[in-house]
Amino acid sequence: MSLASQMQIMLPAVEEELHSVVDRTTNSVYPELRGMLAYHLGWEGAGAGPEAQGKRIRPLLVLLCAQAGGGEWRNALPAAAGVELLHNFSLIHDDIQDNSPLRRGRDTVWKLWGVPQAINAGDVMFTQAFRALHCLGQTISASAALEAHRILEETCLKLTEGQYLDISFETRRLLPLEDYWSMIGGKTSALLGCCAELGALCAGVEDERRARFHEFGYSLGLAFQVLDDWLGIWGDASVIGKSTESDLVSGKKTFPVLYGLSRSPEFAQLWEAGGLKVEDVAQAVSLLESCGAGAVTLERAEELTHKALRALDQAVAEPQKADELKELTASLLKRKK
Amino acid sequence: MSLASQMQIMLPAVEEELHSVVDRTTNSVYPELRGMLAYHLGWEGAGAGPEAQGKRIRPLLVLLCAQAGGGEWRNALPAAAGVELLHNFSLIHDDIQDNSPLRRGRDTVWKLWGVPQAINAGDVMFTQAFRALHCLGQTISASAALEAHRILEETCLKLTEGQYLDISFETRRLLPLEDYWSMIGGKTSALLGCCAELGALCAGVEDERRARFHEFGYSLGLAFQVLDDWLGIWGDASVIGKSTESDLVSGKKTFPVLYGLSRSPEFAQLWEAGGLKVEDVAQAVSLLESCGAGAVTLERAEELTHKALRALDQAVAEPQKADELKELTASLLKRKK
Fold this sequence. Notes:
2 copies of one chain form a homodimer.
Chain A lengths: L2 H23 L5 H10 L9 H4 L3 H12 L8 H21 L4 E2 L2 E2 L1 H5 L1 H19 L2 H4 L2 H28 L7 H26 L4 H28 L1 H4 L7 H4 L4 H9 L1 H8 L8 H10 L2 H23 L7 H10 L5
Antiparallel strand pairs in A: 1-2
């Protein structure tokens, strides 16, 4: 089946599972509390709809991996809901930590309900992520449910470690590339590795191949982030006359920037003068290109993509079972240019 | 054995278990992150020591209930660590939500490391609370570990519900007593009920008696909070010349205040004029006494104490096994006056 046809069947099932978890675990006596969660998940309030819900890539990855591992994807739905709730809990807290008033074009939870309620709404969703996993006891086995808890907990530890680094980086001028990998490893890749591993767990895949599934998701996450860093400087929106949207203006410490800081004294001088202005973007991009930052970034993304696909080949027992996952990988790692 | 002798054996074991969980789950590459947790737990930094660590009542309750239920208390140590970490996660987030610069006389985590890192440190400790439970798989059984997760998750849902109410109350002028019970039920009692239930679970107590253990902890929590409300107005510190420490000045919506608002129009008028001043305290106390708020508060605390002790009697198989728990109950529910 094509990825698109799979998504048409899987995504509504994910949404239904998410609704069921949220409704089961939120006291109906307090509709306002449930409302904050439903708003953040894109179900209710101003701007609700598919755009506000995001792409649900993570639950999709769980279900496709369960299927690729030879399992019945429906049995993995509790895990799919768990990872999406965990991802969204982290977004609610992220928005407070970054002081971001908007997410996907809508007011953030803290902007609407204030910081204290938003911290608490995040804590509720954090709990619901774990609560979701219990239904694996019915669809698979109690031991799978416990192991899923362990995997999700380990992932949260990595996620919060990445978040710690990300917040610390804001006040550090210099940053070795090593710390960059730890940061995106925790913030982005750990959860994608977890998704793939949970899918495999639900399919009853044995330990060695389950580790390959994890590696596939983890490398996919790294590749995705590095490519995203490239797009933030050389992507359509950044290049074609919209320098304001360039990551160089927001001051984000991305791979090409850190590479440039370590290789180009001229770029470092420009960057460290404090906050690039829109009129500096063209010069900064040209300095990054001269020291090879753009090319090296794309090269890293390519390497990581190959690493992910190699792990996927080792993970699945029959190659054709990985078709949809390869299609998903390709669609996530398009240069969009 | 007396409670004091029990505590001398149990509390160091709790501290050791807490250290082991925190050290096992915090990456040693980032000592600053571990430092925030160790600081909050009272192990490190300015003012570290027993005073800063708090009384560890919750883990003690887990261990004493495990013993009263006929189990080996050491097997319940992972659950004891779990509840203490959950309690402390909620304190870290609470301090941000309440904008409190001090806890137990020391700077709060957000005051020292800023709000973004403090939110994240709370999230780390939340994860560690669940991570702690996994060792029950070794001391008891995998199914007990999974059930412990379920119980702790249900407790978090109640806790965050109570927190939602508490934050909402700040902007509501009128508050029915019913909402007061829901709020303290979630914020204080749910976790104490959880402690007693987890202890019983670790002792292998059957469902019906386990529910009585839960009821014991839950009612104990309510009694404790109601008495604390009374002490906040009529306790030593509040009465003997230190009106500044009265709950009436901080504007807290406690049981006697809500009772007074519903029964004494004069008290309501004084209260709703906005923020009682130190010089109003004597008059407010006298109005509360006239409408019976003080007496009714003590009466409720007595009733709840009896309810807790009745549940405890039904929970334990042999009465003498409850001796230490009765001693703990008495020490928690002293009027201190």
